[in-house]
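Anyone up for a design puzzle?
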């Protein structure tokens, strides 16, 4: 059994470009099957971070916020990428009916904004991210919650 260090990796993101770059940096360490949650207030930068990450994984074209659709799917080579936003999610029954459980599989990477709205239904994330306001910029905290997540953070620490 791995003992995981619960201390978050923290970095300051002075502007939007830094948030995009942090997403791109983290993309480099991800493995198929991983789940990332993104918490933070409305406008904290969760979608911006996800855009940087998805671009770096090879998504071309427009990357829309999933705030209305709940999920935006992408396929790059054999990798399925699912970008969720559960802000408008109502209850556990909606989760059952949505079939979203099927999206979390060995050949997908799932990014989840507002995971707290689907608490109890979502699989445990490998990496739990939080964005907080910090002056004009943002502070990013990343916690690894699985051995895969810890390996990822160790290889690509977002120091700063
Ligand atoms: N590090 C940063 N410093 C300053 N502004 C930023 C930073 N990162 C992102 N932003 C800006 O914050 C705004 C909101 O970002 P974004 O849509 O990504 O937030 P969100 O967390 O996804 O919000 P929601 O909860 O509504 O989905 C955007 O205008 C974006 O440019
Ligand atoms: Mg968003």
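Challenge accepted. My sequence:
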């Amino acid at each position: 059994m791995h003992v995981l260090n619960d201390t978050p990796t923290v970095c300051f993101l002075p502007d939007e470009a830094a948030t995009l770059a942090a997403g791109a940096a983290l993309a480099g360490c991800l493995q198929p099957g991983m789940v990332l949650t993104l918490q933070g207030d409305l406008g904290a930068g969760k979608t911006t971070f996800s855009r940087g990450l998805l671009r770096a994984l090879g998504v071309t074209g427009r990357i829309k916020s999933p705030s209305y659709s709940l999920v935006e799917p992408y396929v790059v080579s054999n990798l399925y990428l699912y970008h969720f936003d559960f802000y408008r999610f109502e209850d556990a029954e909606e989760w059952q009916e949505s079939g979203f459980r099927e999206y979390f599989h060995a050949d997908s990477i799932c990014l989840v904004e507002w995971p707290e709205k689907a608490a109890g239904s979502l699989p445990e994330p490998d990496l739990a991210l939080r964005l907080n306001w910090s002056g004009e910029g943002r502070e990013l905290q990343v916690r690894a919650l699985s051995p895969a997540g810890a390996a990822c953070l160790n290889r690509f620490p977002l120091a700063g």
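A detail worth pointing out: DSSP finds four helices and seven strands in the chain.
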